[in-house]
Design goal:
Number of strands: 7
Structural class: alpha+beta
Largest sheet: 5 strands, mixed
CATH architecture of the largest domain: Alpha-Beta Complex
Order of helices and strands: EHHEHHHHEEHEHEEHHHHHHHH
Radius of gyration: 21 Å
Number of helices: 16
CATH class of the largest domain: Alpha Beta
Helix content: 40-55%
Shape: globular
Distance between the termini: 44 Å
Strand content: 5-15%
CATH topology of the largest domain: H-NOX domain
Length: about 350
Amino acid sequence: MRQTGYTRASTLGPIAEVVGATGGSIERVFRRAELPLGLLESPDTLLPLRDHFRLLAASSRELGDEAFAARLGRRTSIAGLGVYGKWVTLAPTLLEAIHRAGTSLPHMLQSATRLILRRQGEEVVWSYELDDPATEGRPQNEMLAVWYMIALVRHFAGARWLPRRVMFGGLPASARRSIGEQMGADIVLCDGPGSIVFDQRLLMTVNPRLGEGDGLDAEEIARIFDIPAPDDLPGKIGVLIELELLGGRPTLETVVRRAGLSKRTLQRRLGDLGLSYADLLRDTLQRRAIRLLRRSDLSITEIAARLGYSDPAHFTRAFENWSGLAPSRWRELARAADR
């Protein structure tokens, strides 16, 4: 499998609103990026980082806007990043928040990326650095990432705060002006990663909302540490199955195409681990079924459809084989146990 990172759909922010408000078609954008539209309603779902890049690139082309991701970034918020956003904004100081953002990023939100803080005299340079090799849409992704970094600093420094400089690599000179208009800051084109530069004294700013929120609960923690490690083939295939479920029943053909493997190679590598594609599909369906039964009020028919079953009776039989109980009865017992 090609080495790639993974990111949560929440990092796309209000992309449908921004594309629609500018006269574009979000349906066409998702179709061109070969991604299921259901991602818009599934912020915790993981997708390969290269697909995230491609979606941003498709949006930029749809609108003819080189600064699309900067425009999108203006509408984002740290709160929109779910549990990750909550965790970093609970920090007592900006320095601790930046530390949390960097150390938890590959486990909670996005892998194959790093947030690095460097001191240069009286200034600090906070950079978003990518290890993922994908190139299409990479500059758009960096613009969006930098806006999230600005949003985090604003949580501590105020809603109007802006960095002294914003640095981007890989952007055409023609885009500098339009990006600067969206960012509201001095734009420097360079050969390095996307970065923001600001006064180092800001690092000791105390959280203005310190003590207002509770920490992460057990359910939130359990929900977020699911980004597969680089050598976790079953985990990576499970992520792709979950993604394909948003568009219908996953098939081996669609999963290997997104994974960049041939069917024979995937089957051989899974076989070496004592697994098969059918095993991973069943495990993924079971986990998703349990999440939907516990965390939603969807009917059994609606849950069956979300799992790719055309007939809810087929889902009920499958669930009974997995658990020994009908899904409706399992839900009743789970809810009683939670009371």
